[in-house]
Amino acid sequence: AQAFTQSSEDNVAALTNAQFVTRMYTDALDRKPDQPGYDFWLNALDTRQATRGQVLLDFIDSDEFTLNELDLIATQIADLGDIWV
User: Fold this and answer.
1) What angle do CA 30, 36, 38 make, to 5 degrees?
2) Is the CB of residue 40 less than 8 Å from the CB of residue 3?
3) DSSP per residue over 30-67, as a string?
4) pLDDT tens digits, residue range 19-66?
5) How far apart are CA 82 and CA 71, in angstroms?
6) Contacts of residue 26, Cβ cutoff 8 Å, sequence gap at least 6
7) I want to staple 38 with a disulfide (CB 3.0 to 4.6 A). Which of 14, 33, 45, 58 is the partner?
8) pLDDT digits (tens, 9 = 90+) for 51-61
């Protein structure tokens, strides 16, 4: 995760901490950040209590991410069922 956040892929490494946190919310959770959560993660990065890799892992290990992914998978399975009928 840390190597990904430092890569030039998708310009993740060039983002400010604020942009990175916003990106985690939009890409991982498919929503805008809530203010308390945004402040928490930005502070963790700015004070070096967490690395970007740790933040990324925390986002994709969250219940919210898991539920979003399960909903997406269920939708895709349903769509496949429509194709096969």
Assistant:
1) 50
2) no
3) SSPPPHHHHHHHHHHHHTTSS-HHHHHHHHHTSHHHHH
4) 999 999 999 999 999 999 999 999 999 999 999 999 999 999 998 988
5) 17
6) 32
7) 33
8) 999 999 999 99
